[in-house]
Predict the structure.
Amino acid sequence: MVTAVSPSDNSGDGLSLLPDDILLHILSRLSSDPRDWSRLACVSSRFAKLVGSVCCRSWCSHFIPTVTADLLSGSDDLPGGWAALRKLSMCCPGLHHAGVLLDEYPSPKRDRRSIWEPHLAPSHWGFSREEGSKLLAGRFRADCLYVSQWPGCVHAEKRRKYFVFRGVFKDFKQSSVWKAVNEVKKSRVEAKCAFCDGKETWDLHSAFCLRMELNLHEGAPIVRAFVCENGHVSGAQVRKPLHL
């Protein structure tokens, strides 16, 4: 996805004179490449508003209707915004945001930078509440977590294979997980959300929110996941080759 910049109020020659319905019709024709709306949102504040509030909401309602309807039940507000949900539905958060390599490689300097930062996933995997429930410890099973369907985005390194997933909590600020991450001081991490502008992030592993049987193998975490203040989750399951 394109890195966001502050859009100006000048939307270009002639385009600023078009009514919203005409602009939305034009924007609807530019949805084949997922990056186009992100680029246009950088052009002007008007484009950014139309893309974020109308185009992305319509896209989510069409392609992930069940998740969209559930996240909105009883509320008209979507924490993090519609553009973030659309990005989450089609983008891998990358290894850096998933957190599994922070301890091993604090300053990645590899040529394959595409696997470190958010990038388009191989396909639209959809989301499953059942998969989210499998990740959470027993006392958090009442929370609603939608996670991308297995296997997510697969990255094979020399010594490990990473199955990178992403997800979103429903009503995160009312969830038991939210209460837990705030109670554990060591759970706060210096990592930005891969999908929204959330400035606060917590480690679900450090806050004991993940299933214990998934957590450790020979002293190292098998599953690592971060959650931002808007309930967006970035994580990965680590698998080592059998010969190691």
User: Anything to note?
Assistant: Residues 108 and 116 are 8 Å apart (CA to CA). The longest strand covers residues 161-169. The two ends are 35 Å apart (CA to CA). The chain has two domains: 15-86, 92-239.
